[in-house]
Sequence to fold (943 residues):
Amino acid sequence: MAEVEEGPAGGSGSEPLDLVRLLLDEVVFVKLRGDRELQGRLHAYDSHMNLILGDVVETIYVVDDEEEDDEIRTTTKKSEMLFVRGDSVVLLSPQNSS
Amino acid sequence: MSFNMNSSGHNAAAPGFGQNYDPFADLSRHDDIDEALDFEDTYDGLGDQLDETDDAFNDDTFGGGDVGPSRPAVGKDFDFFGQTAKVSNALDEEHLRFERQQPVPKAPRVPSTQNYNTGYSYQAAPQPARTGYEKYKGPEAVSELQVDASIWGVAPKKTATPAAAAPSQPAPSAPPAGRKMMSLEEVEAAMRAQSRPTPPAQPVHIQQQPQFGHRESQAHAQASPYTRQESHEPRRQPVDSRQSQGVQPGDYHQAAQGVPHGHPISILQRPSSKHTAPTGPSVPSPLTQQHQAVPAAAPIQILQNPNAAPTQILQNPNRDASRMKVPTHPAHQSQNSISRQPPVITHPSQLSELSEQEKAAFLEAEARRAKRNHKIYVLSKDNGLMTPQDKSFITRIQLQQLVSATGDPNEHGTDAALQEDFYYQVLSSLRAGQRPNPNQPLTNFAQTYLFQTGTRHNGMRRGGRGPENHVQRMEQQVQRAVEAAKNKPKNKQLVIEGSLGKISFSNAKTPKPLLNIKRTESGTDASRPSSVHRQHTTGKGMDKKATLRDIESVYLTLMKMEDLARKMPPPPPPNSQPGQDFVERQAEFQVLNDQLWNALKVHEPISNGAVHPFITFISYPKGKKAIPRVFRHLSHTQRTTILTMIVIHLDQLDVVRGAQVQTGEPITLDAASRERIEVFSSAVMPSLFQLLNESELDIVTGVLGLITQNLNVDLVARTRIGVSMLTMILSRAELIKQAGQSNERTWQQWVSTFNVFFNSLEPTLPNIFPGTVTSGEDIYVWQFLAAIGIGASPDEQQRLVLAVKDRVMETVGLSKTLPPDMAKERLDNVNLFMRSIGLDVELLS
Fold:
C-alpha cells in the first residue's frame, strides 16, 4: 500500500488478473462448468477467480434426452448478487455493453 | 603361461597319478606275457614232473599250480590283471610290433628266463616252479638282479613310487629285446634247461614253508600278494635286464654272490631285510633310502625271487613288520598289493606305513601339500587370465560405450571406436540402420567395415606397444566422453520410422519442450505489436483498455491516498510549527495527488477529432463513481478544472450524446443509457454541484459562458444531464445573487451571459420535455424552467411562458384526469416553474 512509485497498476497488465481487474464494475460474461453462463457486473474477484457479481443473469443449458430432436433448453435465473466459486469458472470475458 | 604353471603344479601335487600310469605300462608287459602262458602250459607239464619228484609239499604251502585257481584270492588277483590285460591288449600289440621292428640278436637266454619267470608270475599259483627256476637261472638272473636294484634305486628319486616310474621309462625299450627272444623254440629250450634245476629248489621251499606255516591263518591273504609280487617280477625283469647291464656294479656284486650260491644268497638276503628293513633296500640301491625303503625293498625282492626263493622269504618279514603295524589282513593285502603295485592310489600312505614313521610323516606331509596345491589350483584356476593390458582394454570398451551412450557415436571418430570395440560398433550401427535417416547409418555402417579392416590391424600392432599406449587411449576416451556429453544437446530429437512425430529427449540441462512455439520477428512480445496495430486501426478499443487501466490506476491511487489520509495526523494548530511527520505526510500526499491527477488525464491536450481522455474516463460507470472520491483529494483548482473539462465537453459526455429527448415523442433511451445517466446524476453531479456551490459567481458565469459559446445549447438542453447541469449553474448564480456575495461587475457579466444563453435556449425550450405529458419524467425540466424563470428578466419570463405554455396547459389538463395524488404531484412540478415567475397553477385553472 505504501509503495507509491509503482506507478499506475492498471497500465502494466503483466498478469492475467490485472486484466481482470480492468473488468471491475463492468458487465462480464462468465462461463461455468456444468453448462452454465453468467452475465453480470463484476464487483470483486481474487486469485482463485472467486467472483462477486451483481445483477446477474444465469443461463443454464439443459439437453433434454427425452425429446427426439435433442433440443437444448435454456433456463435463466436472475440474481441481484452472486458469489461464484473460482473452481467452476471456465471463462471470463468482458461483455460489450453499448 | 598360467596353464603350464598349473599343469606343472598339478603333476607335482599329485604323485599318485604318475603311479597309476606306470602300472598300466607294466600290465601291458604282462599281457605280452600272456602269450608266454602257452609256454607255461607246456611248462606246467614240466612243473608237474617236478612236483611229482620232490615238490609235493610246495603245493600245500604255496597252494600249488593246480590248487591256486580254486582259491578265491588268487582268482581275484587274476581278475585284476586280466582286466588290465584286456585294456592293454592294444598296447601289447604295439609292443609286439615294436619288438619285431627291433631285432635283438643277443641274449636269447635272458629273455627266455624272463619269459619263464613271467609265466609263473602270471599264473601266480606255482611258487615251487619259481624256486626251481631261480636256482637254475642263477647266472642270467644275476644280471637281472643287479639291474633291478639299480632301477629301484633310481626310481625312488624321481617319484614317490619308484617301482612305477622306473619300469615305465625303461619299459618301451626293454621289452623288445626280451620278446624277440621269446620265440617258441627258444622258450622251450629254456624251459627244458630250467626244468632240470627244479629239484634243488626244494630246500628253499622248505625254508619258506615254515614261515608260511606260521602264517597259515594269513596264508590266503599272503598267497595273493605273492602272486602279485610274481606278477610284478616279469615287468621289472626285462627293464632290469637292460638297466642292470652297467648301471650299478655294487648291486651287481650282491646279485653275483647270490647267483652262484643260489639258495645261500637268499639266506644272506633274509637277515639283511629282516633285521634292517629300511637298510636292506639301501644295500641294493642306496638311493632308495631317501624316499621309501619298503617299496624299494619289495620290488628288489621280487626281482630277486626268480633267482632265489629266499628273496620271497625276505619279503615275508617285511610283511610281518607291516602286519605288526596293521594287524588286519585285508589291510595287509591291500598294502602289500599296493606297495608292489604302484597303480593303487593309496600307495603313498601305505608306503609310509610299511616304512619308518618318518617316511610316513614325510609322505603324509607331501600328500597334504598335494591336496593344498590342488585346492589352490582349483581356486586359482582363473587367476592371471587377464593381463593389465586386457583389463585396460575392457575399461576402454566400457568407456567407449559410455561415449556412445551419452553422445552420438556417429559424430565421433569411428576409427577409434571401432578400434576399441568393433562388434559393439557394428551392432550399434546395425541398430542405427533402423532409423529413418538412411544416409548416416549407411555411411556409418560402411565406415564400420572399412575401418575395421584398416584400423583393426593397426590396433593390433599398437596393442603390442605396451601399457602406456593404453593409458593414453584411456585418457583420450575420457576426453571423448566429456566432449560427447557437451555435444549431446545437438541431438535432441529422434525420429523413429513409422511414428508420426519426433521424439525429443530431455535432460537436466535441456528439458523436454512440451510446447514448440516459433517466435516471430523480435519474439519478445507477440501480442504487443498486434495490440499497437489494433490501436491505430481501432483507436476506440485501445482507448478502452488504456482508459480502464487509468481508472484502475486512479482507484489504486485513491486507495493509497485514503489510506494515507486515515494515517494523517491531525493538522497542527495554526500558530504552531507543523511537525516533521506532518510535513512528510503532506509531501507524500502530494506525490499521490500528482499521480492521481495524471491518471485522470485531465490535462491531456484537447483535440477536436477525438474524445478527450477524461471524458472517456467518466464514460465508464466506475469512472463516474470515482469522481466523488477523487474530488475529496483534489484541490479546489483541480476540481474546478475538472468541472470546466466536463462542461466544455458536455455535449460529448456519454450521458449527453445521443441521449436527447424530443418533446411529444416516447423516450427512446435504452436501459444502459438510463443507467449511465442515473450513475452520472448520482455520482458526478453532486460533486459538481458542491463544487459550484463553493464557486464564485465569475466561475459560474464562465461555465455558463463556455456552454453558450462552445456548445450546441440545443443538444445539451434536450438531455437530462444537460438540463441538470444548466439548472445547477443557474441556481448557483441565483443563490449567489440572493446571498449578496456578488459584486455589480460580476453580476452584470452573469446577466449578459445569461441573456446570451437564454437567447440560444429559447428555440429549444418547447422541445426539452422528455416524452409525452403522460411520461411523468419532466420534473427536472420544470426545475430547470424555474431556475431560468428566477434569473430571467420580465421580458425573458414572458418569452419563457410562451415557450412552455403548451406543456403547462397539457400537464394541468392531464392532472385533472389523474388521481388527486398524482395530479397534485404534476401540478406541484408545474408550480415550481409558475411560482418562479410569480404565477401559480391555480391561476390557470
